[in-house]
Structures are given as structure tokens and as C-alpha cells.
């Protein structure tokens, strides 16, 4: 897989504050890459460095095989970018704004703009300053997608969108991947990238703390089990390998199971079970663990 984004020990400091700390990361061609972290973790700083909107303190980055500083014009031509704080001239109508931005890129067919606007439910005749935050975000999405770029770099792309439009956006991302294009998508919400991302990176306080496929992260999640018995049970019978967070309150047992639940099920079968519920750990909770504990990431 060809490398589209190649980051090597990238660091950015703002006076005494460090925005990014020695980030090393590679994103392959045709990949949807989720870049996750809480607000202030360094996601937007990374994106701005990739596009030469700010300059690094140290380290290097290459995007589409190009130097973001020396080849900025070529890089921007081949990239669709949605800023986390997308702002355009509010006096223009949405359609006029998008046509203007398209002309800056050498022209975008009107039918392409209209088609995207119809999909997202944007009124092209409304003035930008009259639009809600969600509708302004639709303008931002259209200008990023409308020229079918090789690389999409999207910073918090679903901010302000309602759930139905979020789903349409995810369909657009999946279509871009099917066309062989690469999507680098930052977010602080796992659920909006889980459905489409091939891999995800988690960043915390400017440092990479996790990098893996969504499937492998799922495999590392545990089961949350709640068993209700006909009569009270002794907790010590369920102190088994892989069982953590064990609590027994009369007839109700709750615990987490890492790995096979076979031993727990066999122990429970020695008693009369009247209720059983087992849920996979929510990925939001899994990522919260990385946010708060800051585990070291595997090599990129």
C-alpha cells in the first residue's frame, strides 16, 4: 500500500505549551483513517502542519509524496480540506460561494455542486450568514468533496450535523474510499468513524497512545456480564481467571470478562439462573481508557 501521509517525529510547540510531541504516523492510499482524541489533544495542529498552515518546530511530514511547504500549491490542488472552524464570506449565497471556490480550483461542474447539495439538504439560494451551524457545515463538506480530490482531510466533519445528514456524510466517505481515494478524518467521537474507518489512531496531549484497526480494537474489548440467580450466591465461586470488577449483591452478579466466558458460564450453571445479560464493551469506553491512562502506542 502506497503511503499518502508520512509523518516522522513531528513536533509543534507554542511557547511553553506543546501542541504535538514527536508524532510518527503513516496513512496508506485508499485508506479511511480515523484520528481520534479529546478536544485540545493535537488533532487540528497535526492537520494544519500537514497543509503548511503552520510550521513544525521539528520533525517532518510528506503528503501525497510532496513537501507541504515547498509543494503547497500542488498539494492543495489535490486535497479536499474541511477546517474545524470553517468560515467563508457570509454575504454570498451558498451556491455563489461554492461556485467561487470551485473556480479557484479551475472550475467544478454545476451539476456536481447541485448533486451534493441535494444529498445533504442544503439550500444553495440561502445566504451563508443566514445559515445555521449545521447548514454552514454542509457548505464546508461540499467544498471539500466537490472536486473529487485524491486526499480528503476533514477536521471534526460532522460538527453541527443532524443524525440523518451524518449518515449521508459517512456514505460519501465510503464512496470516496471505493474510488481509491484516501480520507484522514479527525474527531473526538468514535461512533462517527467506527462504521467507515480502516484504522484509527488515538492522540492524547499531543502524543500517540494507540494505533490499530477497528477490528483489532473490538477484539481487545471485554464483555460486561450481569447474571441474576434465584438465590444468593457466594462471590468467591466466581473469582475466575479473566473475571474483573466482580460484584455480588444478593442474587445479582456483575463483572467484566476478558476472553472466553466459558468458566463463568459453567460456574453460574451450578446455580439456578433466572436472568443473563452480556454486552460487549462500548468502544467509546475503550477509547476513554486510552484518553485517561495514556497507554503507549504500537509502532506506526
Automatic annotation (TrEMBL):
ABC transporter domain location: 5-230
Protein name: ABC transporter ATP-binding protein
Superkingdom as given in the UniProt entry: Bacteria
InterPro entries linked: AAA+_ATPase (IPR003593), ABC_transporter-like_ATP-bd (IPR003439), ABC_transporter-like_CS (IPR017871), ABC_transporter_ATP-binding (IPR050763), P-loop_NTPase (IPR027417)
Higher taxonomy: Bacteria, Bacillati, Actinomycetota, Actinomycetes, Streptosporangiales
Similarity comment: family membership: Belongs to the ABC transporter superfamily.
Cell inner membrane recorded as keyword: no
Keyword Glycosyltransferase found: no
Localization annotation: Cell membrane
Membrane topology: Peripheral membrane protein
Organism: Actinomadura sediminis
GO molecular function terms noted in the UniProt entry: ATP binding
Record key words, sorted: Antibiotic resistance, ATP-binding, Nucleotide-binding, Transport
A Pfam match: ABC_tran
Amino acid at each position: 500500500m502506497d503511503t499518502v501521509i508520512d509523518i516522522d517525529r513531528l513536533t509543534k510547540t507554542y511557547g511553553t505549551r506543546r501542541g504535538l510531541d514527536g508524532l510518527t504516523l503513516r496513512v496508506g492510499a485508499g485508506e479511511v483513517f480515523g484520528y481520534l482524541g479529546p478536544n485540545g489533544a493535537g488533532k487540528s495542529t497535526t492537520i494544519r502542519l500537514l497543509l503548511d498552515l503552520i510550521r513544525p518546530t521539528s520533525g517532518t511530514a510528506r503528503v501525497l509524496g510532496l513537501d507541504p511547504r515547498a509543494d503547497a500549491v500542488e498539494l492543495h490542488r489535490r486535497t479536499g480540506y474541511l477546517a474545524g472552524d470553517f468560515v467563508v464570506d457570509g454575504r454570498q449565497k451558498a451556491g455563489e460561494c461554492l461556485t467561487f471556490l470551485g473556480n479557484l480550483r479551475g472550475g467544478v461542474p454545476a451539476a456536481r455542486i447541485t448533486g451534493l447539495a441535494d444529498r445533504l439538504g442544503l439550500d444553495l439560494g440561502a445566504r451563508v450568514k443566514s445559515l445555521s451551524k449545521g447548514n454552514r457545515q454542509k457548505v464546508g463538506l461540499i467544498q471539500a468533496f466537490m472536486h473529487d480530490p485524491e486526499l480528503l482531510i476533514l477536521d471534526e466533519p460532522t460538527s453541527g450535523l443532524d443524525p440523518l445528514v451524518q449518515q449521508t456524510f459517512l456514505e460519501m466517505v465510503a464512496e470516496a474510499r471505493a474510488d481509491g481515494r484516501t480520507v484522514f478524518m479527525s474527531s473526538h467521537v468514535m461512533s462517527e468513524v467506527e462504521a467507515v474507518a480502516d484504522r484509527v489512531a488515538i492522540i492524547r496531549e499531543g502524543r500517540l497512545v494507540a494505533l490499530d484497526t477497528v477490528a483489532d480494537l473490538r477484539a481487545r474489548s471485554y464483555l460486561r456480564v450481569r447474571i441474576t440467580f434465584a438465590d444468593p450466591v457466594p462471590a468467591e465461586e466466581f473469582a475466575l481467571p479473566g473475571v474483573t470488577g466482580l460484584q455480588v449483591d444478593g442474587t445479582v452478579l456483575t463483572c467484566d470478562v476478558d476472553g472466553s466466558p466459558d468458566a463463568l458460564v459453567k460456574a453460574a450453571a451450578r446455580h439456578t439462573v433466572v436472568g443473563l445479560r452480556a454486552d460487549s464493551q462500548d468502544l467509546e469506553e475503550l477509547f476513554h481508557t486510552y484518553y485517561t491512562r495514556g497507554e503507549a502506542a504500537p509502532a506506526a
